Amino acid sequence: MRLDGKARGRTKEIIIVSFVIALLLLVSWQAFSGQIVAKTKALKTIAREEEAQRQVEKARKACQETCDKALEEDCRDSELVQFCITYIAADIDGNGRIGDYDETLLQGTGLCEDRIYCPQLAQCRCYGGLTMKQCMSLLCDFWKAQGMESVEKRSESLRNYLAPGVCDYRGNANHWYLIASEGKSDLACKT
Asked: Which residues span the domain enclosing 76?
């Protein structure tokens, strides 16, 4: 069966229209799937940030309980030492990696996400409120009272228990470690 000229023209039109429709469907599908991927990424980031906030709140509560226990014991040093050295790790920025530098949690004071200490999360009323710098002094004095005479040994212990974290903090003057060490590269006991 042979097609006449009119029929052949319509067949070509149908093929061209079908091709254009298929092309439009393909372009629409790519745009739609791109939006789905972008929305899925955004939702995953939000979920990670919310999970980080839950972790921080859970840690804040546990830290407050540690402080409350110290308060019940008349601010006994052994309880406060535990408060000072306890830390958590949380993906604060929601990027799927723990260990980045962050200044949002402490409103301008920097920290590494893998080392967030109790004094940074909870207010402890012992000694008028324990900061990381006050914890340094408390730890140094506690270890000295426990018989660790060498300033070098106490300073080494201090650096082991109050580590800055894995992020690159040295270029960030707002990092708590540099603030507590008064700009020096490492923490040290004074006496």
From this structure: 5-180
